[in-house]
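A brief tutorial aside. Many learners find it easier to grasp structure tokens once they have seen a single protein encoded end to end. The record that follows does exactly this for 2,3-dihydroxybenzoate-AMP ligase. Read the sequence first, then the structure, and try to relate runs of similar tokens to stretches of the chain.
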Amino acid sequence: MLPLRQVWPEELADRYRRKGYWRGETMSDLLTEKANLHPDCPAVVGSRDGVKIRWTYAELFARTQAIAASVHALGFRPGERIVVQLPNVPSFLSIVFGLFRAGIVPVFALPAHREAEIAHFVRRSEAAGYLTIDRFGKFDYRELARNVAAATQLRRIMILGDSQEFFSLDETPGPEHPTHTASPSDVAFLQISGGSTGLSKLIPRTHDDYIYSFRASAEICGLTPESVYLCALPAAHNFPMSSPGTFGALYAGSLVVMASSPAPETAFQLIEEERVTITGLVPPLALAWMRAARSSERDLSSLEVVQVGGAKLTPEAARRLGPALGCKLQQVFGMAEGLVNYTRLDDPEELVVATQGRPISPDDEIRIVNESGEPVPEGSSGHLLTRGPYTIRGYHNEPEANPISFTADGFYRTGDIVRQTADGYLVVEGRAVDHINRSGEKVSAEEIEDHLLAHPHVFDAAVVSLPDPHLGERSCAFIIPEGEPPRVIELKAFVRQRGLADFKVPDQIVLLEDFSTTAVGKVSRAELRRRLRDQYLQTSQGE
């Protein structure tokens, strides 16, 4: 099993410790401390199978002890990895912190992921276990577990709920299992990248670096023990986990409210019932909430801050959000690899509307460069590079991708095109890489092309992003048929049946006789995608 490592040069690590960014805390210590400080305060509320669940900090802590004992009894040992795929239920927090307590490394997957993605995460992380729920919504995750078990070498599959032939996960508080003592510099968990090329890469985050990111985020966002954070987006995403997210809320002693759905009817009811003060949304959801608020009879008056991130919010929409929802807008621009930017709560309106914020840390280093890697003139657009106390220095088990994604001196090439204002705020102007930002979910063009090319009646495929008023961007696949042209509905079903998340299925498919925009072999795939996209947009606008 390849070791998990994330190492900063010693001179930088010393600086981050001296400046108090890294305080030697661990994820397990965090919850222990909060449970001791205010055991009877509410920690998390949510529902499962229609049943409301409400735990205090002491109750949440007791359940983490039970989870740690349960996974130890199943034979897992410190340092092993478990792929965790759970929806927004309170047990997400008890299970994850239970794994931290046992020294197990969670590998975070999203509820929308299917067999192809889960099997990839298992193999790439060398996971010994897979942990999921029995059912959520209309989907049976036990069937997914069976498919993953057949395709991988997993040792144990654990199910929250009706486990059937798999191992049941016991959350019943019982005898305490001894806590594994982690080093703050150890890798605490693995997140997944946006997957700009091919399948997602694994992002190792240490206790030190990640705790700093959400501790500082909680301060920037003004969280206190009286705050109530609504987790509306999938809980395993970096944004709702740490910006400030559920982890930042727990650090501040706040209440976390788990929303089973981000839809306005569900979320507005929770805001009214739990007096939610802050939440995070992606732009399409923000627009849906603004529209729904016009006719909603729910009391949203407790809402103080709505964060919008995951994709760029247009200035016009940004200007309307505060008045529509009766709260402040906070723009957030970040990535699971590290760097997070916020507009501040006391910023003037123009900064909040027109920018995506400035970095968390004084030691977040920003470079904006041209195609040759040279710095661009001040105020000009270019490729964003960054390094700092919570930005990783390399992906796990990616010897080919790491030299491309990181410079020799440790700057992460984000793939974003930005410009920086005179006062240090970033304005996001697009992406330099071939992926589609569909409602905040990053979809790799290359990955989807690969699946389409497996169809017997597809000769070639190119997937591009197109602007969409609701999703931000939608995916469009240009197909050159082989033999009898396949039907669009058949191609979509084919991609879905290959075990991919629904958000990766092309929204639109266009059949072409050939890719006449280029001579074969003379233009890169990236350039081919760009030309097809431009040609399609020009044609559709002219109609």
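Self-check: The first strand starts at residue 42 and ends at 48. If you spotted this yourself, you are ready for the next section.
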